[in-house]
Design a protein that fits this description.
By secondary structure, the protein is an all-alpha fold. The chain has 10 helices and no strands.
Length: 195
């Protein structure tokens, strides 16, 4: 009896964790950080608050865990920086269309000034999420596609910021033509030696 009761415990636990994290992202996008409560997540995920508090001692811990589940960007290496960057921007666009990221990220960015622990986490998470684009640009410098003097951090901003602005702050479409235009404009500004 004990064995049969214990056997299905792990899958139920994993299912509960996924339900909690999914509900957190959904409600964060819908209600904002201020409107999100542990009670609302528990009700939406159909779990007890005790189940939640065993895993995450506070709302900020829960939000950090949920945000960490969102997919990271790939770091394609086709040998051509233009192609690599278009692919990574396309991946970013797909992630924002198929996950709650487009609703969650502005909410968390707005909350960072009021919640130091969240701010610290977001700084680390942002550095981690920028890493694939940095790696692509560094490879382009080594291949001679970009000058050796390229400011890599500024280059990441030049590539990613137009798409972030369009997705999060305007109603303008972000299509493949736009992605190509962003990449080519940024690369020309960086002194790109095209193929």
């Amino acid at each position: 009896m004990t064995k049969s009761q214990g056997g299905p415990g792990r899958p139920r636990s994993e299912a509960a964790e996924k339900a909690i994290l999914d509900s957190t992202l959904k409600l964060l996008a819908e209600l904002g950080y201020g409107g999100l409560t542990m009670d609302k997540v528990a009700a939406d995920a159909k779990v007890s608050k005790a189940t939640m508090y065993r895993r995450w001692p506070s709302k900020v811990h829960l939000v950090i865990a949920a945000f960490s589940q969102l997919p990271e960007l790939p770091s394609p290496d086709t040998g051509a920086i233009r192609t690599d960057l278009i692919q990574v921007l396309e991946s970013f666009l797909t992630i924002t269309e198929n996950t709650p990221l487009a609703g969650v990220l502005p909410t968390l960015a707005g909350e960072r000034a009021r919640t130091p622990e969240l701010s610290d986490y977001l700084d680390k998470a942002t550095r981690q999420r920028r890493k694939p684009v940095k790696q692509m640009l560094e490879r382009a410098v080594r291949r001679g596609e970009l000058p050796g003097s390229t400011d890599i951090e500024l280059a990441v901003d030049m590539v990613m910021s137009p798409l972030v602005m369009r997705i999060f702050f305007t109603n303008n479409p972000a299509d493949m033509e736009f992605l190509k235009q962003v990449v080519e404009t940024a690369l020309r500004g960086l002194g790109w030696q095209s193929e």
